[in-house]
Amino acid sequence: MTVNNDKTLLIVLPYGIGWKSIINEKNLEILTNAGLKIILLCEPNMVNSTNPNVVIKTLKKIPRTKSEIAVGLLRNYVFADTSKPHSETLKIKISELDDSHPLLSLIRKSIGKFFSKSTIVKNILARSDSALFNNSEYDELFTDYNPDFIFVTYPFSFYTYPILRHASKSQIPILGYVPSWDNLTSKWEVPVKLNKLLVWNSIMKEEAINFLDYSDECVSITGVPQFDIHSNNSLIMDRKKFLQDLHGDANKKILLYATGTEQLSDSEPFIVKMIYDMIQNNKFDHPCQLLLRVHPRRSLSDFKDLFDKPDVLIQTPGKESKEFKDSGYVWNSDFTDYSTLSNTLYHADVMINVASTITIESCLFDTPVVNIGFDANLDPDFNRSVKRHFQYSHYLDIVESNGVKIANSEHELGEFINRYLNDPTLESTGRNLIVDNQCSFRDGKSSERLLRYIIDFTKEYSV
């Protein structure tokens, strides 16, 4: 039964972040069965569909002009209001910009901070953006397909700005999904106010309201569609079979190290080698093996020193591919790779990472987590140190939950790993609190909720 009288929904998919949980053939069918015609704007080869009511067009990677960057710096840096709740990350980012933009730093300190709360200044900057940047690159798309609604899966991407500006000027309702827990407090504020936002949890909803000035009724909680697969217990395989597939040893404990992006930390290759040396020197009470899982945006070559070493298992998040290299993705994942991740987190005895989203995923399986809070033998300034991550707004809930241990030295790293090897139930209450706070739901139906909100949005804004 149709509900929208063949209205057209333009879905903007700038990156591959979690897109297979959100936009896939099954979900597209649900949307088209609700009476919607879909225009999907994405990178080439990202999505394939045989649905006759789905048209796939290529997203243009339009770089920002110097003028756009300048207005963005005025809005998000010079006149940024650091007195708002959830501004911890903003203050750190401003400190970084102070070092690289001395003139703008002087203007911010002498003028900007006094007008940071000014509604007049904010309105001037918003109008300047609207007047200066016409972004006509998508005029033909809007003319040909005349979308009634916009759904953008990652509104903070600069590549979405031309579409959002066009939609705003044409008064087309915009629904945005926030695909990661750090986006609201760590990314540049979108130049266009969206009509509604979909977020993971109540913490993010508070951030949207108190930090980005959205109203309560404009923000809805879906849970985490990307994590739905972790609720499918039928995908979990026998530990012996899991290790056999990895060519591992079923009689040894699994120390899982999940890397971040290269930007996350300069010290990760040294930390991973440190853990490997602990294993080889029998520093733990149980025989162990290191399972190294690389981030989808991280090159395996950064850890080449561990190739072919005994007690080292390498896991990649898919197949190496250049398809999405413009977005920084080294690996292309499919359903099997997501299933492998579920098994990896389930069977790991201890999971180690710097300060990544995979911390939350590990807590879904009640797997003990050790975060890296030191820089190995490096001595970077704070803006490059791993220490900064634990002061970011989004990570404070993890720090305060008492669900993970943060190792501030090599000694603590070995101590915490050994502690969890001997008793994996430690901090289980805190890990459950992290899941409750960050995921909102454990029912594996967050993708269904997201789709329902999309359909409800199109009903609400139908003319």
What does this structure look like?
The protein is α/β, with parallel strands linked by helices. It folds into three domains: 7-62 and 135-224 and 445-460, Glycogen Phosphorylase B (Rossmann fold); 66-130, no CATH class; 229-439, Glycogen Phosphorylase B (Rossmann fold), CATH 3.40.50.2000. The protein is built from 18 helices and 15 strands. It has helices at residues 19-22, 25-33, 66-78, 88-100, 102-110, 119-132, 139-145, 161-169, 183-186, 202-210, 239-245, 268-280, 335-347, 358-364, 396-401, 410-422, 428-439, 446-460; strands at 7-13, 36-42, 54-58, 149-152, 174-177, 196-199, 219-221, 253-258, 288-293, 312-315, 319-320, 331-332, 350-353, 369-372, 405-407. Strands 3-2-1-4-5-6-7 form a seven-stranded parallel beta sheet, sandwiched between helices. A six-stranded parallel beta sheet has the order 10-9-8-13-14-15, sandwiched between helices. Helix 3 runs antiparallel to helix 6 (119-132) and helix 14 (358-364) crosses helix 17. The longest helix has 15 residues, at 446-460. The protein is globular. The mean pLDDT is 91.
